[in-house]
Write a structure and sequence with these properties.
single chain; alpha+beta; seven-stranded mixed sheet; three-stranded antiparallel sheet
């Protein structure tokens, strides 16, 4: 993100989905980047693979939009979710968290999911990034972030991080080490309608995986 760029954050009490709200407002020309939407609670959040992300009070429900031109020149468009996710993971780690990033863009604590990221590119190369993270509460079989941090501090530190010149090559060098943790997990491959395992995947330089002679960019 361009140095000195000021990103406005609008806080809402309740919303169906920060992602759907922001993308629709952009399509209607009501909102232009850079801008972020953060809600106290979310009733119909969008998760990975089209699932519904359950929103519980006190957690992070964030969507923001920026111009694609402000992103690193070497960042593959298909791997933006990894880039955005890794920077937030770094902020959490700097605060003492053991959160790790499961391929391609889910936040995990141990073997349980604590959140995730989705991205979209709209007209005029506007990038929308949406992040859900369990800061305070989690449904059964999900994790809560292992540190105490306010939403406001997390966002302040995250958006400062986004302003730095952090290239994809620098992120990928660290991410490919962390990818080894992902190889413990199976997943359902919608394209082949088969249950596959990430231990059989080979991470590629653009953040995709090669599995069964196919290149896969996401689990959605």
């Amino acid at each position: 993100m361009e140095k000195g760029l000021r990103l406005e954050i609008r806080y809402l009490d309740e919303i169906n989905s920060t992602h759907l709200y922001l993308t629709e407002a952009i399509r209607k020309g009501e909102i232009k980047p850079p801008l972020a939407i953060c809600a106290d609670r979310q009733t119909g959040g969008v998760g990975s693979r089209g699932d519904r992300w359950i929103g519980m009070d006190g957690n992070l429900f964030l969507s923001f939009c920026i111009d694609a031109a402000s992103l690193p020149a070497d960042l593959p468009r298909q791997s933006m979710s990894i880039w955005f996710s890794w920077l937030l993971k770094e902020v959490l780690a700097e605060e003492g968290s053991k959160i790790w990033l499961k391929w391609p863009n889910d936040f995990y604590l141990g073997d349980k999911k604590a959140g995730g990221t989705i991205t979209a590119v709209l007209r005029e190369n506007i990038v929308v990034c949406s992040i859900g993270l369990n800061l305070k509460k989690a449904p059964e079989n999900f994790a809560v972030v292992d540190i105490s941090i306010t939403r406001e501090r997390l966002l302040e530190r995250y958006f400062l991080k986004l302003k730095q010149d952090i290239f994809w090559k620098d992120i990928f060098r660290k991410y490919k080490v962390e990818f080894l943790q992902s190889t413990r997990f199976p997943y359902f491959d919608k394209a082949t309608q088969k249950r596959l395992h990430l231990r059989d995947a080979v991470l590629q330089e653009d953040g995709s995986i090669l599995i069964e002679n196919r290149r896969v960019y996401s689990l959605r």
